[in-house]
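Format notes (please read before filing issues)

Several people have asked whether sequences and structure tokens are stored in separate files. They are not. Every record keeps both together, in the order shown below: the sequence lines, then the token lines. Line labels are part of the format and must not be stripped during preprocessing.
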Amino acid sequence: MKRLLIASNNEGKIMEIRGMFSLLDYEIVSMKDAGLDFTIVEDQPDFSGNSFKKAREISKYTGEIVLADDSGLEVEVLGNKPGVFSSRFAGEYASDEENNNKLLSLLKDVPIEKRKAQFRCVITMYWPNDFYLQTEGICPGRIGFIPAGSGGFGYDPLFILDGYQKTMAELTIEEKNKVSHRAMALKALFELLKAKAALNT
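Then the structure lines:
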């Protein structure tokens, strides 16, 4: 079984990725599991750049296969903000609740038809020999007026998925792993991994 280091300390992300990778022959290891305690500065202008930087730098440091994602919320009426600043929208060390409250305050007088948004996720899987794969997933929806649901993390309690009458935080982990932006990016990655494995046989 191959070992795959997840470049994150976000337990919610790790749980989602571990659930998705359960079908493949990889042992999923978190930064905490590996005894790693350092942070990569996410100073790139987009999700793709941040995802690549995290995966590459941690792979170079550890010599391991590393999977990194960068993801966030893009709200149309806010010019696709908070974008890469999603986790620190209300400040460098803002909590999920603080970020959600800031978002709601900015959308206070915006009607439901103008609250279109999407979650975007870019995943990079980087090997120590400098080979890498990168995929993207998008999940469209809109921003609700009040938080709902106790699952998920981040903006999940405010994000109502297209085609659903409930927020991302109201989905079960199984439901979320079928429709989320991270699920879409991981599914695309799995297809590339299958193709890579076929070429190596």
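For reference, the curators noted about this record: The chain has one domain: 2-199. The helical segments are 11-21, 47-62, 96-106, 173-179, 181-199.
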